[in-house]
Amino acid sequence: xxxxxxxxxxxxxxxxxxxxETLYAKFTANPASVESGWRTFFEGLEGSAQGPSWxxxxxxxxxxxxxxxxxxxxxxxxxxxxxxxxxxxxxxxxAPAPVxxxxxxxxxxxxxxxxxxxxxxxxxxxxxxxxxxxxxxxREMPEDLKTEYHGFSDADIDRKVYLGGTMGFEWATIRxxxxxxxxxxxxxxxxEYMHIADVEERRFLQERMEGQDKAIEFSVxxxxxxxxxxxxxxxWEKFLGKxxxxxxxxxxxxxxxxxxxxxSVIKYGxxxxxxxxxxxxAHRGRLNVLANVMAKPLRVIFHEFAGGSANPDDIGGSxxxxxxxxxxxxxxxxxxxVHMSLVANPSHLEAADPVVLGKTRAIQTLNNDLKDHVxxxxxxxxxxxxxAGQGIVWECLGFSGIRGYNTGGCVHFxxxxxxxxxxxPQFARSSPYPSDVAKGVQAPVFHxxxxxxxxxxxxxxxxxxxxxxxxxDIVIDMWCYRRFGxxxxxxxxxxxxxxxxxxxxxxxxxxxxxxRLIKEGVIDQPWIDENVKQLTLRLExxxxxxxxxxPNKADWFGGRWxxxxxxxxxxxxxxxxxxxxxxKLFDSLGRTLTTVPESVKIHKTLARVLDAKREMFKSGxxxxxxxxxxxxxxxxxxxxxxxxxxxxxxxxxxxxxRHAVWVDQTDEHKYVPLQEIxxxxxxxxxxPLSEYGVLGFExxxxxxxPKTLVLWEAQFGxxxxxxxxxxxxxxxxxxxxxxRANGLVMLLPHGYEGQGPEHSSAxxxxxxxxxxxxxxxxxNCTSPANYFHLLRRQMHRNFRKPLIVMTPKSLLRxxxxxxxxxxxxxxxxxxxxLSDTNGAADVDTKRLVLCTGKVAYDLIExxxxxxxxxxxxxxxxxxxPFPGNPIAERVAKMPNLExxxxxxxxxxxxxxxxxxxxxxxxxxASVNSPVKRARYAGRSASASPATGLMKRHQAEQGALVAxxxxxxxxxxxxxxxAS
Length: 979
Hints:
By secondary structure, the protein is α/β, with parallel strands linked by helices. The strands form 5 sheets. The protein has an 8-stranded mixed β-sheet with strand order 3-9-10-8-7-4-6-5. The protein has a 7-stranded mixed β-sheet with strand order 14-11-15-16-18-17-22, with helices on both faces. Strands 19-21-20-23-24 form a 5-stranded mixed β-sheet, sandwiched between helices.
């Protein structure tokens, strides 16, 4: 077995040269005395066919007879040549002495130390790389990268050492070796990759980094193209700075090398099969990317700078600042067309990351690219402080290898300004690099000097090759600087005076690179001057055109959204569609949901659940919540829609209610009944333990695929506050800000069962406070059939709005919270209000109790137990858009009405009261009701959502029910505790 058959990096990881020498000495004395891995390595070293064999049992030969001597080159004595002038022959050269064991050991030790030196450069060479354009980062040569550390003195530098093909050398001097290593690993590109476990991935990167011929080289045309993009980026920022003095633009000044790098992503990606790229980034450099990568018309950007909108005036919406906006475009390189989209984002750094990944995953699903992950690529552009500081970055990195969330590798590009707003790196993170968190998922990291656009472009090209081959995340950490402050009106010298003293004197990237190309003879100064002149003329022309620009259409219902539109009627309209199933489909779904294949051995408790379901379909009565949900999913799948449900423990369901996945009890293989339905695709995923990242991912998925019902389920409703940024910045306001419709459904378990403050409330008040401009829908259903129709309505209407559902906990198995077969069939549909079947007739009604959710059943049971005959309880199933007209129509039919009560379980400052009170009053006024206002019945205002003490909970619950119905509080508490 030869030396190259062994991975020295794995064998010698973390060991010192002295230890290896000692180990080799033991091996030469007694091979059996060393561990088998080292023994195999030493044997391979000595038996390598690629180099000499220093020692053998048969060599050197010890016999000295003439025949043996004639065959032994170390003992052969050629006949002496005659001396010049006919004198005596010159004396024969002395025979070389046999190689001693000490010499063999020294040669072996040299080879081993050289390999350890190589490995050290592979692991730590980036620490000596020339990365900082400003020279502020003092990077002394680490001791273990010096030859002395590995046992090579100055006298050894020019002695040849056997390398056996490593680095492209059979034999090399230490000087030659170190010169090559420093060029490979310590130039303007530093690579971290030895933390990667996969040998093939490491070798792939080594082959492209290592060797005497591995200098970064671009053709003349390539160099010109790179410089031209740098000039475009730089002149764009200068032009904006001149035309809009002091206006915030969050310019790329100092980081212009990113623009040719992104161009290379498109170019090389297209060559490698990429047909769609989804980009996410914060505000730094966004306008530059929009103009010079996304090809957004410059006149539109100038129009926006002047205060105009990119959309027609009649579209409405709030709009957003120009450096938050997204766009889409098609670019073509070398005959390869690539569709690109830049996702809109808020100022919350990194918030767009999961949206980009979710959108990419949806595109891959639609294009049948989930196996190869070749055609669709996510690219995320980060700031250095944000990449290190924002937890969402790690949540998104964690998706990279997870079923249902993997996108086949994301290219991460860090604009490393070496400062975050006013905070220097040493105060912003505990690690040497902002990218260090990415090593947790074994992503390779390229550190590169932003003043060298060729190096940045080279790193990007390698990143694309790696991603397309291995389908894994990869990071480019471009060290640059921020020429101005956090924004153009900021004064950075308040906090970084030394850095900005250097920046003021530092030439721009185009000057640094342009002068380099002039010295190389690639271009001359007139070439640069002409390019700048032509670009300035184009910018001036677009600037003039921006003054008269008028948008004529809104870009939000094209592509995959074709056929959908904004609602044509008002938010308060009925907006219903028929969502019932045919009898045939209903029965077919029943068989699918209750048939257990012989190959699946289910849990005995699940068997009892399925027996109960069979009885439901047989009798047509008693359908529970989970069955209603499964029927909704199955009906949509049979009609060709997709269904994607994700969340923590969604397969089984937090409360063991769903059982969408059946796990075989003998070998744990899984069976998913709904995946047996043809036409549609069903996914149910137990997500990572994340709210922020997963909710953002699902929002992005729904953004790309309006024909799939995308649902995110919180384990408990209160966990949703971990994703508040996604709710505030995307779900409730994305359509208004960016004209991006979305049909995401959020399922939030909610209800007061005495289980404490943490798992009682999904905080519905926060969603209702955000309701305006027909932006979202908020519902709290109380029957399985109404929930069924709500989900189906979400896909059958010709528009999409996010839907927030307060889903039940105890109602999942409540004896009253059931539906009958006919409720799911025929012309049935979603009902915004549900009447009380046991309530008083309209003419006899004196007290109308309005409520929503689980408390309705508490009220109904208490009312019926007391024998009240003048009380009607009406459930408000949809809170927003609020059904004011239907409520007004109900009230108008109650001539003897004396009191209207709003009852809720939640404290007065939580829940629904502050939202519904003025709307109920408005509805009463619209029909001239003698009752002018509703009365509140519920818990008092509280800092905590609920008590954690069961007795107190029962007392509070009994009191609010009694208050709503006009009963004795003492009697109601006694009855509640008894039940």
